[in-house]
Specification:
- The chain is built from 4 helices and 9 strands; from the N terminus they run H-H-E-E-H-E-E-E-E-E-E-H-E.
- It is α+β, with helices and mostly antiparallel strands.
- Strands 1, 2, 3, 4, 5, 6, 7, 8 and 9 form a 9-stranded mixed sheet that branches.
- Strand 4 and strand 5 form a beta hairpin.
- It is globular.
Length: 155
């Protein structure tokens, strides 16, 4: 890691910590007021308030009791004040009392504000499915998930 990447790694650490505390306010605080967030099923949250509300919903339902591990795979600076961060996550959660495990590959775009702090302006989460998603896997996830892929939440 080069020194310029350190603040971006810190954002990822804060995201992980907020998830594992089920703290939707702390999670959303890392995003720009007008950020865009595409969740794992393709739903689009527009704005920090919608991101907070969406995460409060999943922390209280499908991902209650979950544990998420986020790791940085690559950082790419588009400009000194704009970076793309490629992540890999490992999420353990429960469905019907049985532990489930899934991996995803989120991509976030961050910008440096005038005060030098970084914020997330866009986040796209993609489920990793070995060999492609099975119909059973897709059905299980979409049936249990409280926020469907066609959902659009705005601030």
């Amino acid at each position: 890691m080069i020194p310029e990447e350190q603040p971006l790694y810190e954002i990822v650490e804060k995201l992980e910590a907020a998830w594992n505390r089920y703290d939707s306010v702390a999670w959303a605080s890392l995003f720009a007021e007008d950020a865009d967030f595409i969740h794992i099923l393709g739903g689009h949250f527009q704005g920090r308030d919608a991101i907070e509300h969406g995460h409060r919903t999943i922390f209280d339902t499908i991902y209650e009791g979950s544990r998420n591990k986020l790791g940085v795979e690559k950082v790419r600076f588009v400009r000194p004040d704009v970076a793309i961060v490629f992540l890999r996550t490992n999420l353990k959660w429960y469905l019907g009392g049985e532990e489930q495990e899934g991996q995803s590959r989120p991509t976030l775009v961050a910008q440096k504000k005038a005060n030098g702090e970084w914020e997330i302006v866009a986040f796209q989460n993609t489920l990793i499915t070995p060999g492609g998603p099975t119909p059973d896997m897709v059905k299980k996830l979409t049936d249990a998930h409280p926020i469907k892929g066609d959902t659009e939440l705005k601030k």
